[in-house]
Design goal:
six-stranded mixed sheet
Amino acid sequence: MRIAMLLMTCRFAFAWPALVLTLIGADQPVGASDQLDELRKEALALVNESRREDGLSTLQLDDALTQAAQRHAEDMLKNGYFSHVSPTGKTVRERYLAAGGGSGKYVAENIAQCSNCRADREQIALLHQGWINSPGHRANILAHGLEGFGFGLAADGMHMYAVQTFAGPGTPFGAEAADETASLDVKGQLALAVDLINHARQAAGLGVLQVSEALSQALIANADRVDLRKQSLPSMDTILAALPAEQQGKFASMAFVAGQCDGCGRQPTEADIRFFVGRWLDNPQYRALLLEPAGTYFGLGIKADGAGRKLALGAVAGS
């Protein structure tokens, strides 16, 4: 048995450069928590208005995103820096996870800095307008595959730092937004994967692989055994044991490939198959396994957790 594991691919976004505003007004630090709550609701209302105008779903305030945003705003104010990455190296994704956010989600962040500004509804509107007029920040606000929103604000009378955070299941890598809803069943996933692999095998002068739905189902049944962080995959014996009795003597060898993506949508799609198989074929080690001359069958299992994480497990089997 030979194995190869694709490094995990996470999707999170920054918008560079960060937004800097210099607005002259009366000094006014952020006051009580109820004032901040009202400003946070105003920030959400403006984001949702922009999303509705673009035909997108609206977002909901999320506790983990709000904590991550507020802590980052306060940290920038306290330590005198302005960056998506803190002086200790923490990113928006790490801040979100530390606040209790979901590990498989797409995460994005916008930040802004303002001097001599008022912490009021008018200022929130100015911040939003600045973000929405900036292509990178606008892309975060109007991203597909988002569900949650957080907003943080910290000021001391001279300086104000504002942070928007976003999270959701994301969309499949390489897909247009509409493709996310077009889920692909196990049979369709397998057929497309084998077609892509056989194209490469034929170009190399090798025989084509046949699809094995039984092997695919066995891989799906063992997907929970896969842990790419620990470089752990099911054994060949485990996969064989999951096959129907009449199939168990059919395979004499197996080579496994695996990969995982975060923030890449809820359900398996055609784009996911192209992404995983494309990554495998682009890597010499994985490509060698998929182009194994003695290979005769291929199975593929994709497990999607519905929150943004997808795991792909493939097997080239020889008879």
